[in-house]
Amino acid sequence: MRSRFLVEVEAALGPGVDVEPDPPRGLVGRRARPGGIWLGFDRAALAESDDGLGRRVPVLVAVPVSTYDGCRLEVELVGGWQVARGSILVARLQGTTMPPPPLARAAAAVDEPATWLDREAAERLALLARQRYRERRSHARITGGRAWHAIGVLPPELARFATPHSPAEYSLARLPPRFIRGLEGLLDDDERLLYWIARPMVTDIGILARLRGRIDRRAALLALTDRQLLWIVDHAQPDQYLSDWGVDVELVPLERLLEARCTERDDLIWLVVVTPAGTRAYALPPELHDEVRVIRDLLARFTPSGAADLPRRRYALHPLPFDAEAGARFGQEREASVLYERATQAGDVLGFLFSPSRPEQRSPAALVLRPAMVELLEAHRRRAVSLADVAAVRVTLSPLVGRVSIEPGVALSYPAPLMDLGAAFVRLTRRAIATLA
Fold this sequence. Notes:
Layout: E1 5-11, E2 16-21, E3 27-33, E4 41-46, E5 58-62, E6 72-83, E7 86-93, H1 101-107, E8 115-117, H2 119-138, H3 156-162, H4 167-170, H5 177-186, E9 193-199, H6 207-212, E10 220-225, E11 228-234, E12 247-253, E13 259-265, E14 268-275, E15 278-284, H7 289-300, H8 325-328, H9 333-345, E16 351-355, E17 365-369, E18 373-377, E19 382-386, E20 392-397, E21 402-407, E22 411-414, H10 419-436
Parallel strand pairs: 5-7
Antiparallel strand pairs: 1-4, 1-6, 2-3, 4-5, 6-7, 6-8, 9-10, 10-11, 11-12, 12-20, 13-14, 14-15, 16-17, 17-18, 18-19, 20-21, 21-22
């Protein structure tokens, strides 16, 4: 099976319709291009490529009808020319009959001595150009602090020229502070935010909604990074004071992703993600249909079929140090140490999250992260779930209570002052699940 490459049309050479982006209506045709002599090709460039001089690699694409400037096409390479100024690849859209070589040479304006490249050589050149592009982009990575956090650097209209943030990162200032705090607790410093969708709070419920029963009126955020999908929801239903009670978060490591799809049900648009351990679904209002499809298409790039030829990220799993202060703050330092000692006697410990005894919990307990499992350790018993069986991880980041839940499997509640320790435990758990996948 031939490799496919994404190209972007830079010059539509034949008659057709000029199409322009017109948010939020999408692409709109505004005028017709006049006819003329057309040789069956449009000029394009290989997406995310570098010819060695910082330019995209030119591609001549055979298409059945001329497209429009900016159109992106998935094509297969058939060859190319090596000329003094570089190389020009030749490709075709699937189902298109290749015009004769003289027409291709004329459309590419190759009027100098040139060496023809066969398909294999053209594909090698394209792959090398994409590698150069990734290497160049890596030099622009933000180091130090939070790479995804673009708030306050510069006004968005100026920052996009000065710092390598994504549009989603520039837009973070539009989110409520509680959602930003949720991201701060769960994203790695060098993680990048790719896209997010906000579900607004429902403050005014109509009579039909009341008759249907209780509905979820909480605001929510569906966020995609280069490492995880996060569903962040207000911890409590909004009250008359719009109090900030923190958020509940469910996250799915992208390394566990098998499939992503959209479905419509109950007057909602659902994003459904499939993992080896189960399916998760997230509901958004129907007016966000287009945005949900965008995030679905981005997720598809992380599925086995979409990322088969890409290198896989491997995480270094550095154990979290045992924090005796977590027990000492509640007068239970000895109890925490005893549980930790029990955990280490049973094998390697990557993370240890202590929950002290209190009125709603009769005895201390702890969640223990090991290289291949998460274990709930209580006074007289232990329960474990394999990381291979985890579909998602949930965490509550609220001034009312903290809670970590391994879905499906085990869960632990703990006092809100230990919220930062719970977030650190979840971050390491997500990396352990991704590494095991």
